């Protein structure tokens, strides 16, 4: 924990009845690096004010819209101004809000997907460099200590040359509504105007893809994908598989589904090398399974001296105590705090705007591959 003063934080969205807003606020509190000052908590100003009162915030720092937020905050002395803004609005607002904030000198922590298109994501990457601000994308699962241990072990060559990767993210939440025409028409994640180009791959498949590139350090060069909308009147994918080829010649799979009946949050990744394999499951995040040829399976856990520095700094409590999604997100906030302050931080401490660019390029390549008859489609670096 830093001994410096806390970073002044604002939020776009995340107000009353927002689950993801709660996750972000708790995560920001964990490392005691941030203090929530104000923001635009709801599209309905009255509801935003109610939320601010509930959190006992200064109502003068609760604004009706982002234009007012920017105008009023920039009018304040630099030592009082909100420094970083968390964007937790519906998908279609991520790009315009992040762009406006960056152009006005605010650091940004953004929910994924970063934007609706790869072109928009690349523009944000360019703008962050131009305006000298930090941008953290909350690919939350990269914050788990044992995912970071996995990354470190692969980078150290413990597995040998990577030859196979298999990542999946299965949920079943949409199954109860997708078979009813009226119900599915009312789901915002199936509305391209609000959700963007993709539902399943854009929402959860991109997490699995990000886990592959984050843990292995490999770049996906091309994909061959098959997506399923289940019904002709449903415009967006709810299930899909992408075969992947990586820059070291290896191949793998990214599988995602929101109609995997009764599945909850089944994200898992397995990486196989010439010397060993390694597996991790999000629903059992404290266990990392290490498999060497001809030897018993080893189960690695957080909080022990055998783990890497990146894993160690991501562990908050003693061994044997479960660390979950709030802790994982908290690690991303802690890494972002160092970047915001201009301090040094370990590679992999938080997903950057570049991971957002990679994710959008993956989504667009997958959509193109499936649309064009399941053909290999390149992903530009």
From TrEMBL:
Residues 147-278 form the GFO/IDH/MocA-like oxidoreductase domain. It comes from the Bacteria. InterPro entries: Gfo/Idh/MocA-like_OxRdtase_N, Gfo/Idh/MocA_oxidoreduct, GFO_IDH_MocA-like_dom, NAD(P)-bd_dom_sf. GO terms for molecular function: nucleotide binding. Gene3D superfamilies: Dihydrodipicolinate Reductase, domain 2 (3.30.360.10), NAD(P)-binding Rossmann-like Domain (3.40.50.720). Residues 21-137 form the Gfo/Idh/MocA-like oxidoreductase N-terminal domain. This is Oxidoreductase.
């Amino acid at each position: 924990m830093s001994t410096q003063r806390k970073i002044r934080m604002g939020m776009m969205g995340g107000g009353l009845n927002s689950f993801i807003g709660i996750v972000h606020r708790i995560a920001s509190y964990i490392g005691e690096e941030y203090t929530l000052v104000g923001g635009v908590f709801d599209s309905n100003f009255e509801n935003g004010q109610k939320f601010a009162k509930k959190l006992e915030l200064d109502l003068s720092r609760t604004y009706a819209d982002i234009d007012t937020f920017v105008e009023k905050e920039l009018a304040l002395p630099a030592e009082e101004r909100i420094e970083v803004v968390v964007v937790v609005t519906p998908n279609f607002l991520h790009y315009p809000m992040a762009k406006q904030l960056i152009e006005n000198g605010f650091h940004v922590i953004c929910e994924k997907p970063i934007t609706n298109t790869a072109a928009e994501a690349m523009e944000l990457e360019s703008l962050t460099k131009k305006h000298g601000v930090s941008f953290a994308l909350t690919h939350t699962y990269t914050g788990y200590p044992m995912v970071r241990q996995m990354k470190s072990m692969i980078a150290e060559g413990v597995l040998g040359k990577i030859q196979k990767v298999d990542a999946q993210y299965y949920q079943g939440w949409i199954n109860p509504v997708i078979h009813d025409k009226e119900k599915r028409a009312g789901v915002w994640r199936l509305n391209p105007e609000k959700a963007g180009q993709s539902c399943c791959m854009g929402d959860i498949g991109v997490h699995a893809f990000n886990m592959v590139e984050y843990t292995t350090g490999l770049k996906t060069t091309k994909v061959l994908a098959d997506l399923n909308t289940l019904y002709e009147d449903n415009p967006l994918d709810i299930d899909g598989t992408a075969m992947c080829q990586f820059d070291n010649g290896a191949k793998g799979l990214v599988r995602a589904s929101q109609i995997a009946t009764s599945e909850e949050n089944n994200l898992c990744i397995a990486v196989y090398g010439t010397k060993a394999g390694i597996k991790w499951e999000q629903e059992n995040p404290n266990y990392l399974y290490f498999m060497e040829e001809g030897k018993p399976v080893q189960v690695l856990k957080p909080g022990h001296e055998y783990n890497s520095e990146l894993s160690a700094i991501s562990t908050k409590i003693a061994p044997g105590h479960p660390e979950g999604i709030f802790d994982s997100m908290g690690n991303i906030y802690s890494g972002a705090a160092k970047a915001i302050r201009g301090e040094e931080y370990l590679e992999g401490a938080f997903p950057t705007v570049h991971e957002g660019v990679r994710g959008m390029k993956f989504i667009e390549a997958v959509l193109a591959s499936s649309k064009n008859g399941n053909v290999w489609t390149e992903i530009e670096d």
